[in-house]
Design goal:
The chain is of the alpha/beta class. It folds into two domains: 136 residues, Aspartate Aminotransferase, domain 1 (Alpha-Beta Complex); 256 residues, Aspartate Aminotransferase, domain 2 (3-Layer(aba) Sandwich). Helix content is 38%, strand content 16%. A hairpin with a 2-residue loop joins strand 1 and strand 2. Helix 7 runs parallel beside helix 8, helix 11 runs parallel beside helix 13 and helix 12 crosses helix 13. The radius of gyration is 22 Å and the shape is globular.
């Protein structure tokens, strides 16, 4: 994982209390749960787009999409408190709030995507979507992008090349390059579609058939490639013409993050078969969704049993309902569009004078800054320095891409114009400091 803390080298800059907490954490949790940053952040409180550590230091959060409507959102917290004082159980009982939320949630999707299955996470939603695609087509083969991440189940781990070579892919998976708008320009969408067709043909040649294209519609872990609207439309058409289903993974781009549309696939085409989401839907509580047509949902149900104890539990539904209320009442889609354009414009201006910046791209509040390879350091090394230096200035981002060379800027949807000004002011100062240091250890 990019931007992963190395537990073998606890930094001396950590306080004695934090070093003790780190030791206790490793003693009971082990190293299976990675921490961020060379110097981990001990978070104790949040509000809006701000976090505070145990020493009272304030951080500007330009990374976290799970609390989509802001950390410790009062409306979400009160909705959950109220529900927990009434009842919280599974979906095998009639419950008004679950049905009412499902109706509202489906109304944000195109006509024809008229059923929703609730899960605990995006991983579970993607797992079920792939299983349904394989059942519906009678084929096994799934196409994913080269550095994709789609989840943690055994099925999804084998569909997530970002995990690295020590976690092998399933033999019925084919990887294709993401539509790289930086290197392929306006032909990126066509190149991508041609790659999907070639992968489908290879799957058929090996007797596996082509079941689905599973794609994160912002290509986040591949390096963030929003492209112009319509970038993915040709690949969606190619998938269907080749006999596969299109599964749009909306865990990262969904819920209005890209500005103007609720879902990332809507920037390109409504021509998909299933859409999944998870992380941002309930303000930090576990929830996942699979949205699909009646024909797929009810057809699969006739031959298969699916039950998820906590999927769609009333407390998570209460939180998700409050999140939708916040998005609508505070017009957060428009905020993502306006504030995202402000961020993108200013970062593009800053990059113009930077020899270590190769490209700036984004849509709404999802922006990637690709660092350039130079004679002294590759883009990944520059990116890691930027992430660490920003963390030292108490601004939080991360990095993605095959070499960790793309800065990932993805703040909560409540990130406003003042936050954007503060972010870009600090970013400009940090970039100047990092590039002036040159290729020093």
């Amino acid at each position: 994982m990019v931007n992963r803390f190395d537990p073998a080298s606890a930094p001396s800059a950590l306080s004695a209390a934090d070093r003790r907490l780190l030791d206790r954490r490793r003693a009971v949790l082990g190293d299976i749960y990675p921490l961020f940053y060379d110097k981990p952040v001990h978070v104790v409180r949040g509000s809006g787009a701000r976090l505070w550590d145990a020493e009272g230091n304030e951080y500007l959060d330009a990374y976290n999409n799970v609390p989509a409507v802001g950390h410790a959102n009062p409306r979400v917290a009160e909705a959950v408190r109220r529900q927990l004082t009434q009842v919280n159980t599974h979906t095998r009982y009639l419950n008004e709030s679950v049905v009412a939320y499902a109706e509202r949630f489906l109304a944000t999707h195109p006509a024809g995507l008229d059923r929703v299955v609730f899960t605990n996470s995006g991983s579970e939603a993607n797992d079920l979507a792939v299983s349904i695609a394989q059942w519906r087509t009678g084929a096994q083969g799934v196409v994913v992008t080269r550095n994709a991440y789609h989840g943690t189940t055994r099925l999804l781990s084998g569909l997530s090349p970002e995990n690295g070579p020590r976690m092998p892919l399933h033999p019925w998976v084919r990887v294709v390059d993401a539509p790289d708008t930086f290197r392929h320009g306006p032909r990126a969408g066509t190149v991508f579609a041609e790659s999907v067709r070639a992968a489908a043909e290879d799957l058929r040649r090996h007797g596996l058939g082509f079941a689905a294209l599973l794609v994160d519609t912002i290509l986040s872990t591949d390096g963030i490639f929003p492209g112009e609207p319509g970038l993915l439309a040709e690949a969606f058409r190619a998938t269907r013409e080749e006999g596969g289903l299109v599964v749009a993974d909306e865990v990262q781009p969904g819920l209005g993050r890209l500005g103007g549309t609720m879902w990332g696939f809507q920037r390109h085409s409504d021509g998909i078969d299933m859409a999944t989401c998870g992380k941002p839907l309930a303000g930090g509580l576990p929830i996942g969704t699979l949205v699909l047509p009646e024909e797929l949902s009810d057809g699969y149900a006739q031959e298969h049993r699916y039950f998820n104890t906590f999927g769609g539990n009333p407390a998570s539904i209460a939180a998700a309902t409050a999140v939708l209320d916040e998005i609508e009442d505070r017009n957060l889609l428009d905020n993502a569009r306006r504030t995202g354009a402000q961020l993108l414009g200013r970062l593009t201006e800053i990059a113009a004078a930077s020899p270590i910046t190769a490209d700036v791209r984004g849509a709404g509040l999802f922006i990637g800054v690709e660092m350039a390879a130079t004679d002294g350091a590759d883009g990944g090394r520059w990116a890691r320095r930027m992430v660490g230096a920003l963390r030292d200035r108490r601004v939080l981002i991360s990095a993605v891409g095959h070499a960790g060379q793309v800065l990932k800027i993805r703040p909560p949807l409540v990130f406003d114009a003042d936050d954007a000004d503060e972010f870009t002011d600090v970013y400009a100062e940090v970039l100047a400091e990092v590039q002036n240091q040159g290729d020093t250890p």
